[in-house]
Design brief:
The structure holds two protein chains of two kinds. By secondary structure, chain A is an alpha+beta fold. In chain A, 33% of the residues lie in helices and 14% in strands. Chain B contains 17 helices and 21 strands. Chain B has two domains: 34-261 and 424-640, FAD/NAD(P)-binding domain, CATH 3.50.50.60; 264-420, Flavocytochrome C3, Chain A, domain 1. Chain B is 38% helix and 15% strand. Classes of the chains: A alpha+beta, B alpha/beta.
Chain lengths: 253, 656
């Protein structure tokens, strides 16, 4: 793999706090190695800003291996940047070339207010889970794990839906800021397992109600969410969610 | 004298007997008792959820924006349990024995046996929550093997086991939040412990969004704050993982045990340059099928695929024929370091070895051909079928490798090198998980107890969930049963005022330095000192130098660090500064501990103490103890908890 160095022009959203209006700032960053991760490139810029006496750019990040779901950012108009199936923290600078201009913004959605700079408040997702995204089983109530065989296909499909990392890119990608992909992934995960069966109808109704209450928009099937999802969660989950919701309502829940 | 309070009686009856006789708290009293849980990884989420279900009033804290982000989520490979579903000779005793041996005989028998006993309930609980574990075609749970064992007892969900287990615990936690038994405080960091009349009675937490300091009372405080691997700067830990909560407790009287027992994981993606901010693990499960090798000739610069079979040195298979590529982590890491130090390393830095899947792809490909009855097919078809199988088992790991390095591991062998991954040391706790401060408990990686000097793969998830789901719900009641008459202490109590003042003073001091060097630059320098001198191999001379260097770094930090921004606002540099200041102090203690332990055991390898073959040489006569360090104004006092082996007979670990 050939490595190279590049100079870039960054346009970064700066916003002091949730009450501030916010604006773009321009920064030149030089001698960036193609081996760096995108966040390491911002680390370099932040180190410089601190040395110059300015405030560093705030952004959410933690595991830096694409699984915790904490990192966000819209990079050149795309949540988590240009690579398919990749979180911002796993995006590497070889995705860019010398002289590129890169625009970096926070996830934009009414339900995700900006906390500072590129950092947003995604606690609405936690409240959606609180409304029913679980199996009601207290610790100590369980029977032997193998007493409940689950068809491999169902187990695999449930796993594929459960791979959602709750980052919110689906919301940021959607022109309506809909949270349907996130909600459908959880509904789909639990609806395909026998453990989720007893609360199946109540769950989907409650989670949809909470989603609406949080101010997320409606789904108009553009599939932008699936295209930008770093875990490539399928929109088929949304179809399943719609069926589950219809079914629950038809049976009077 | 430290009393671990191990129940009397036969090893396999201790926990049952304890549970049968432990004090209980009646439901009406539980509602009046408040518990603080700091950290929401596997240990914290499972503890907070379980205690909430039992009826206690719980407050949970995490520094991330949601409890679901805690770093347990990044665990890849799996979770052990002595289910013996594979009928391959596993049992509670064997899991206990493997863990004790894997830990190089520096863990407590009583604790480890309990861990092995509850391991089976963990799997059941997680399945009941809807955790989508991997399954066989018959619908039953699938297992795989992990390092340091010869049975298949590891349950997994592709390469995302930690994620699925944590989401299960997180959902249980959020259910309790909805029911009102748990109050969740995200983006909060514990910055002080509050002690009243010798008992932990609350914490001072900093709201990371507003910068405000908050006072929170509780009858008991549980620290589930993970390990301190980030003392090395570069590690597989998350960027925010820190020792601060545990360190504050330590400075207020909680002993810190075996700080030098750190785990260097053998299979991580190598460092690519100075810009590196963290390291990424490639799951140990890859050693199931991958073969590790280096060129047999020093300085062989040919691409891996051009080096013929007979000019490769599969050094783990050569040195340890019985376990081969599945030796425990400490052994595998040292063996990689040995080859690289001797000049056999690969890649541009020469600090890497190959993890090769070519043989596995062929093996799986041929198995598919016979399974599908395809008869005579071309080599290409076999290779493609093999790749498909490997992709199903390890696809997400291979994709991650490619994203980071730009190389396709289906075509060329992965380059790997050891990296800091886990810390066996932590706050000293007794059998009930209680620290040396009454009412203060430590769970999961934050405590020291179960893994001795080296942790086996797939045991961290097991321990975190054991502590949270099945141990603390019993042992905490034993303490709180005597506390039912204590009503909530108002937070204007002088102890709260004083603790908050102390936290505020420290923050003010940090912000007032206004020096020239960034927090990050200090952290990097600390990491380099500790990695070079208290890393995979240590010696007395290096450790003495390191202690001096860390002390000098501390003085420099407190006179020249530069933190931008304000106190009463979100300030990530200030958050980091507090953590790095604590890491510096811990770094000194790690070196002191490593210097005091004149033996090699598990992850602690003192170059002076090795067998003629280069294996760790324990000194059971002189060092069969837990080192528990008591903090004093400018120094530490060592307390030794002797380890008594009643069932297992410690011997030289052999994986040959």
């Amino acid at each position: 793999m050939q490595h190279y160095s590049m100079n870039l022009k960054l346009k970064v959203w700066r916003q002091k706090n949730s009450n501030d209006n916010g604006h773009f700032e321009n920064y030149d960053v030089n001698n960036i190695s193609s081996e760096m991760s995108f966040l390491e490139m911002i680390d370099v810029l932040n180190e410089r800003l601190i040395s110059e006496g300015s405030d560093s750019i705030a952004f959410d990040h933690d595991c830096r291996e694409g699984i915790c779901g904490m990192c966000s950012m819209v990079i050149n108009g795309q949540p988590h940047g240009p690579w398919k199936g990749t979180t911002t923290c796993q995006l590497h600078m070889r995705a860019f070339k010398d002289g590129d201009q890169i625009t970096i913004e926070p996830f934009r959605a009414n339900a995700f207010p900006v906390v500072k700079d590129l950092m947003v408040n995604r606690s609405a997702f936690d409240r959606i889970i609180q409304s029913g995204g679980y199996v009601s089983v207290n610790t100590g109530n369980a029977v032997d794990g193998n007493s409940l065989p689950i068809e491999k296909q169902h187990a695999d499909d449930a796993f594929a839906a459960a791979a959602c990392i709750g980052c919110g890119a689906c919301v940021a990608a959607c022109k309506n800021a809909s949270a349907m992909l996130f909600v459908s992934a959880k509904v789909s995960h639990l609806a395909q397992l026998p453990q989720g069966e007893p609360e199946r109808k109540q769950r989907v109704v409650s989670m949809i109600a909470q989603m609406d209450k949080e101010g997320f928009g409606s789904c108009t099937n553009t599939y932008a969410c699936e295209a930008e999802c770093p875990k490539e969660i399928s929109v088929l989950n949304i179809a399943r969610l719609n069926r589950e919701y219809l079914n629950a309502n038809l049976s009077g829940n | 004298m430290l009393d671990a309070k191990i129940p009397a009686g036969k090893l396999d009856e201790k926990w049952t007997k304890y549970k049968g006789t432990v004090k209980l708290v009646n439901p009406a009293n539980k509602r009046k008792l408040e518990i603080i849980v700091v950290g929401t990884g596997l240990a914290g989420s499972s503890a907070a959820a379980s205690l909430g279900e039992m009826g206690y009033k719980v407050k949970a804290f995490c520094f991330q924006d949601s409890p679901r982000r805690a770093h347990s989520i990044a665990a890849q490979g799996g979770i052990n349990a002595a289910k013996n579903y594979q009928n391959d000779g596993d049992s509670v005793y064997r899991l206990f024995y493997d863990t004790i041996k894997g830990g190089d005989y520096r863990a407590r028998e009583g604790n480890v046996h309990r861990l092995a006993e509850v391991s089976t309930s963990i799997i059941d609980q997680c399945v009941a929550q809807g955790v989508p574990f991997a399954r066989e075609y018959g619908g039953l749970l699938s297992n795989r093997s992990f390092g340091g064992t010869q049975v298949q007892r590891t349950f997994y969900a592709a390469g995302q086991t930690g994620q699925q287990l944590l989401i299960g615990a997180y959902q249980a936690l959020e259910r309790q939040v909805a029911l009102g038994t748990v109050e969740m405080h995200a983006r909060h960091e514990m910055v002080e412990l509050v002690i009243i009349d010798g008992k932990a009675r609350g914490i001072i937490a900093r709201n990371l969004v507003t910068g405000e300091l908050e006072r929170h009372f509780a009858h008991a405080v549980l620290l589930c704050t993970g390990g301190y691997g980030n003392v090395f700067y570069l590690s597989t830990n998350a960027m925010g993982s820190n020792v601060t909560a545990a360190w504050k407790a330590h400075k207020k009287g909680a002993y810190f045990a075996n700080p030098c027992f750190t785990q260097i994981h053998p299979t991580c993606i190598p460092v690519s340059g100075d810009h590196q901010s963290k390291l990424t693990l490639m799951s140990e499960s890859l050693r199931n099928d991958g073969r590790i090798w280096v060129p047999a000739k020093q300085g062989d610069n040919r691409p891996a695929n051009e080096i013929p079979e007979e000019e490769r040195d599969y050094y783990l298979e050569r040195r340890y024929p019985a376990f081969g590529n599945l030796v425990p982590r400490d052994v595998a890491s040292r063996a990689a370091k040995e080859r690289c130090d001797a000049g056999f390393g690969v890649g541009s830095s020469k600090q890497a070895v190959y993890l090769d899947y070519a043989a596995a792809i062929q093996r799986y490909g041929k198995a598919e051909v016979s399974k599908k009855n395809l008869g005579n097919v071309s080599a290409e078809v076999i290779t493609n079928l093999g790749k498909d199988v490997v992709k199903e088992k390890y696809g997400n790991l291979f994709a991650m490798y490619e994203k980071i390095t730009g190389e396709n591991p289906y075509e060329v062998p992965m380059r790997i090198y050891p990296a800091v991954h886990y810390t066996m040391g932590g706050l000293w706790v007794d059998y009930e998980l209680k620290t040396t401060i009454d009412g203060l408990y430590a769970l999961g990686e934050a405590n020291f107890s179960e893994h001795g000097a080296n942790r086996l793969g797939a045991s961290a998830l097991m321990q975190g969930l054991a502590d949270g789901y099945f141990v603390i719900p019993y042992t905490l009641g034993n303490y709180l049963a005597d506390d039912i008459r204590t009503t909530s202490i108002p937070t204007d109590h002088p102890a709260f005022v004083e603790a908050e003042q102390k936290a505020a003073d420290r923050i003010n001091k940090l912000m007032s330095i206004q020096g020239k060097q960034t927090v990050e630059s200090f952290h990097k320098r600390l990491g380099k000192i500790i990695w070079d001198k208290c890393g995979m191999a240590r010696n007395a001379e290096g450790l003495k130098q390191a202690i001096e260097e860390v002390r000098a770094l501390k003085a420099e930090f407190w006179s020249d660090v530069r933190i931008p921004g304000e106190i009463n606002a979100m300030n990530q540099e200030l958050d980091k500064a507090g953590r790095v200041a604590d890491f510096i102090e811990l770094g000194e203690l790690m070196c002191i501990d490593a210097l005091e332990r004149n033996e090699s055991c598990g992850g602690h390898f003192r170059e002076e103490y090795q067998t003629p073959e280069g294996e760790a040489l324990r000194d059971d006569e002189g060092h069969m103890y837990v080192s528990a360090w008591e903090h004093q104004e400018n120094n530490w006092n060592l307390h030794k908890e002797p380890l008594n082996y009643e069932v297992v007979k410690p011997s030289q670990r052999s994986y040959k």
